[in-house]
Amino acid sequence: MKRQFSQNNSSTERQQLRKQLLAARQQVSVAERQQGGQAIARQLLALPEMQRTRTVGSYYSVRAELPTGDINEKLQQQGHQLALPVLHPVVKNHLLLLAISDATGWHSNAYGIPEPQLDCRHIVPLAHVDILLVPLVGFDLIGNRLGMGGGFYDRTLAGWRAGHFPQLQPIGLALDCQRVERLPIAPWDVPLPRVITPTKIWDFRS
Ligand SMILES: Nc1ncnc2c1ncn2[C@@H]1O[C@H](COP(=O)(O)OP(=O)(O)O)[C@@H](O)[C@H]1O
Ligand SMILES: [Mg+2]
């Protein structure tokens, strides 16, 4: 029998899983997290599709998230165009990607996350993004993703799932402790085709 998504049961279960996974991530030492970020940077940059200049949407890691500092720095060193998200100034709960450079000004958004100063000239539409690095709290063996609960990346990727940006390749980044066997999912959750952890590249395509 097909299991129906039940909003209440499932959202409680998701909330509990989020708590557990965030606690597990918190237990990982700063050194291990840093090494994890470096191991992911190596695997990402070695991908065949990264062997020519790309536009890469990334994010600025905070708290116990997998540190993206090394990843972002290496992407720029290798000549890729880096774009980072800002909270959309008009459309609530949506993200905009902004191209960054050495001249970029920074400020902290409402969540305390550093973001580039909003400048319309630097907006990178998803149609121009080759790789989108996606933060996550948990992922499962078929690529389902659990985020922080804001639904930002589900909204960002809704158009991609509908086939609008065929060039775009989302890649989740995570520590190995963020993997679970199966996540309870909701209809709006967009599963990821790939996730990179410090130990391997998880490919859920095919
Ligand atoms: N494409 C979308 N359009 C409208 N609302 C969405 C969309 N994706 C997610 N949401 C809303 O965002 C909220 C959080 O989504 P959820 O999947 O629980 O968070 P996360 O993916 O961050 O773990 C949900 O209540 C959902 O209604
Ligand atoms: Mg979701």
UniProtKB/TrEMBL annotation:
Its cofactor is Mg(2+). It holds the Pfam family 5-FTHF_cyc-lig. Keywords: ATP-binding, Ligase, Magnesium, Metal-binding, Nucleotide-binding. Its EC number is 6.3.3.2. One of its GO terms (biological process) is tetrahydrofolate interconversion. It is an enzyme of class 6 (ligase). ATP binds at R14, Q15, Q16, L17, R18, R145, L146, G147, M148, G149, G150, G151, F152, Y153. One of its GO terms (molecular function) is metal ion binding. Substrate binds at E65. It catalyses: (6S)-5-formyl-5,6,7,8-tetrahydrofolate + ATP = (6R)-5,10-methenyltetrahydrofolate + ADP + phosphate. PANTHER family: 5-FORMYLTETRAHYDROFOLATE CYCLO-LIGASE (PTHR23407:SF1), ATPASE INHIBITOR/5-FORMYLTETRAHYDROFOLATE CYCLO-LIGASE (PTHR23407). Belongs to the 5-formyltetrahydrofolate cyclo-ligase family. This is 5-formyltetrahydrofolate cyclo-ligase.
